[in-house]
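Forwarding the complex inputs:
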Amino acid sequence: MMQYLPQILFILALAFAVWFFIKNVKTLSRNIKLGKDIDRTDQKNLRFKKMMRVALGQSKMVKRPIAGFLHIIVYVGFIIINIEVLEIIIDGILGTHRIFSFLGPVYDVLIGSFEILALLVLVSVIIFLIRRNFLNIKRFLANELKGWPKSDANYILYFEVVLMVLFLTMNATDYQLQLNGAEHYASEAGIAGAFPVSQYLLPIFDQMSNSTLIIIERAAWWLHIIGILIFLNYLYYSKHLHILLAFPNVYFSNLNPQGKFKNLEAVTNEVKLMMDPDADPFAEPEGGEEDVPEKFGASDVKDLNWFQLLSAYTCTECGRCTAECPANQTGKKLSPRKIMMDTRDRLEEVSKNIDNKKENDDKQLLDDYISREELWACTTCNACVEACPVGIDPLSIIMDMRQYLVMEESAAPAELNNAMSNIENNAAPWPYNQQDRLNWATEES
Amino acid sequence: MSETLKVPTMASYLAEGKQPEVLFWVGCAGSFDDRAKKITKAFVKILNKTNVDFAVLGTEEGCTGDPAKRAGNEFLFQMQAMTNIEVMNSYEVKKIVTACPHCFNTIKNEYPALGGNYEVIHHTQFLKQLLNEGRLKVEGGKFKGKRITFHDPCYLGRANNEYEAPRDLLRKLEVELIEMKSCKAKGLCCGAGGAQMFKDAEKGDKEVNIHRTEQAIETKPDIVAAGCPFCNTMMTDGVKNKEKQDDIEVLDVVEMIANAEDL
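Prediction (whole assembly, two chains):
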C-alpha cells in the first residue's frame, strides 16, 4: 500500500485541481452570459483564419518587436513544454519513470528542445521582470496598474522563473541519477532524454549521494507539477487568463470595418414610426413590447454584450491600447486599458453578489468605476482597437456608455448639447441655416 | 478666382430628367466652414475641369448624424440618417463622393442597415480613379520636390483601411513624402473625432492637435497634407500655435492637385 501512496496523492491533487478549474470555468461562463446577445457566429471561415493569424500566429504582438519577440519565446515555450507535462502526469499516475522514453531518439530531441526552450523562457521572463520593474516604461507605470495588477504581473513572472528552474533541476538530478545507475531511474536502454542545458548543472550534483539526489529530484518533480496545477487555477483570478481566452476572443472579435458602429434597432423602429405619416401612433412596436429595451446604452456590465464581457476577462493589461490613445498621450484621464479592467472588476463584483444572493449593491460600472470625464475624452479614433493584440474593442464600451449618458440621462457636455440641437434644428452642428448650404458655390472666395 | 463654378443640384438634374454620374456629398464643414469651403471649391474645380457629371444636394443635404452618433445620441443620428436616405433614395442615388471622411464612413458603413445602399468613395479615391482612367492628369508643378507629410484621417485610415489613395496622389505630385512617427494604421488622431470638434477637451497636459502637430513638425515639412476638413482645422490651429504658419502650410490633397494645375 505504502508504495502506491505517491500515486494516490498525485491523483488526488490532480483531481482537485481539475475540479477547481472546472468550477471556475463555470463561473466564468455564467458571468460572460450575463451580457446581452450579439451575433458573432457568421463568417466562420474568416473568424477561424483571423484566430490562427492573430491569436496563434501572434501577428499583432510583433508590432512592438522587442516585447513581441520575447512574448513569442515564452508562448512557444509554454505550449511545447506542456507536452512534457503530459508525460509528468502519466508518470505521476502510473508511478513510471519517463514513460515516453521508448520513443528513443525522438524522445531525446523532445527533452533536448524542452530544455533549450526552458532556458530561453527563463531569460525572456527575467528580461520581462526587468522591463516591468526597472526600466521606466510608461505603459507599466500607469495609475490603473498600481497595487494588485502590478503584483499580479510580477507573480506570473516569478512563477515562470520558479517553474523553469524546477524543471531544469528535475532534469539535472534525473540525469545524474541515470548516470549513477540508480534503481528506477537508470535503464538498460541507456540514458533516457538529452540534457543540453541541465548537463551544465551536474557539477552541483555529482558529489551527492543517490538518496540525496532522489530527494531533490522528487521535490523538484512534485513542486513543478503542483506549481503548474496551482498556476492553472490562478488564471481565473489573474490577467493571465488571456492564455486561454485570447483564442475565443479573437475568433468572436469584430470583422466589420472599425469605423462601422452598430445601429440600435429599437431606435430604428421608433424613428421609422415617427417619420411615417401613415403610422398608427398607438400600434405595438414591430417586434412586440420586448423589442423596446429597458435602457438605451450601458450603465452597468449587464447592459454590455457577452463579447465585451469576454474581452474584459481576456485583457492582459499590456497597455498597448492606452499607449496609442491620443487622449491618454495628452494627459487626459481616459485609458482604454482601464475601461477593460474596470469592466472586469465590476463583473467580478456582480459575480460575487450573485454567489452571495445579494440582489442590489447600489453600484454600477458608470461613476463607481468609469467616470464621465474618461468617457467624454475619447475621440473614437480606433487606435486602441487597432493596437490590441487579441481583438478587444474598448471603444465599443465607451460608445455604449455615452449612449446611456445622452439617451437616458441627457447628460452630454453643454457644448455637445448645443451642437446636437443645431443638428436637430438646422441639420448642421453649427447654427447655420440649411437654406444657406449651397451659398459657397456662388460666394467670391 | 473669379471664374464661376458649375455646381448643379440633384433637383435641377431631376427637372431635366437626368442622373449624374456621382453625387458630391459636401458635408457641413465643406458647406459652412470658411477653410473647408476652399477644399470644396478646389474639388469642384477639378470636377469641372475633368467634365465629371456630378451634382450636389444643396439645401436638401443635412448632417449625416456622425457627431450625434459618436456623442451617444443614436436617436438624432438615425433621424438625420433616415431623412438623408429618404432624399437620396428619391433621387435614386447610386454613387457618392465626399471630401469628409466622417460623412464617408457614416454613409458607407452605417446607412446600409437603415436602407441607404450606395457606393461611397472618398475624394482622394475618386481622384485616383480619375487618374487611372486618364481623365485627370497630375504633374508635380509647384510642389515638385517639396517635403510633404500626410496626416491620416482616422475615419479614412484605421476606420476604413484606406492609406494609399492620398499618398498615391501625393507621389504623382512628385513630392518628397515623409512619414510622421505615427502613421497609417498607427496614425495619431488630430483630436477632432468622436464629436470632440464641438466641445472643449477634458483636462490634460496638452491638446491632441498640438501633440500631432509636434509630430508633423518633426518631419520638417513644407506642407502638412490632410484629407479631412476637421483634421485640416486642427492641424492649421496646431501650426499657428507653434508659430510656424509662415513655414508650414496645411493643405488638403485636393487643394494641392488643384494648385498644381493652377486651377
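Chain A has a mean pLDDT of 92.
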